[in-house]
Fold this sequence. Notes:
The chain is α+β, with helices and mostly antiparallel strands. The protein contains 3 helices and 4 strands. It has helices at 23-32, 66-83, 106-121, and strands at 35-37, 41-47, 54-58, 91-97. It has a 4-stranded mixed β-sheet with strand order 1-2-4-3, with helices on both faces. The radius of gyration is 15 Å and the shape is globular. 25% of the residues are buried.
Amino acid sequence: xxxxxLKTPRTGTFAKTDRLRKRREFLSVYEIKRSYFFRLFVxxxxxxxxxxxxxxxxxxxxxxxxxxxxxxxxVLREAFRRQRAxxxxxxxxVVNAKKGSAEMRTPEAAESFALLAEKxxx
Length: 122
């Protein structure tokens, strides 16, 4: 790989600063009690005032084994990354995957995030 390739920023990345990582960050989103229910997951939202969206994911063992849970998280992150430009404002978003989400595909999740963007803009 060329040395200059390592220095060029990737577009559409999902950096650590775009994630909710600590328990207290998740709990602050849950405290607001602003939730949206979709077929395969539940979304909790809180305005953060940071100028960017941050995403937190929870996928329990009810969804499946570790391979399945990690796949669900990858699908949700990719769907969010594709649709986050549609969401106006800046929010902390926590997604709780439901039991049947093991069969979820990226387009289906992206469609749900697009619906979320519509609901948040109202």
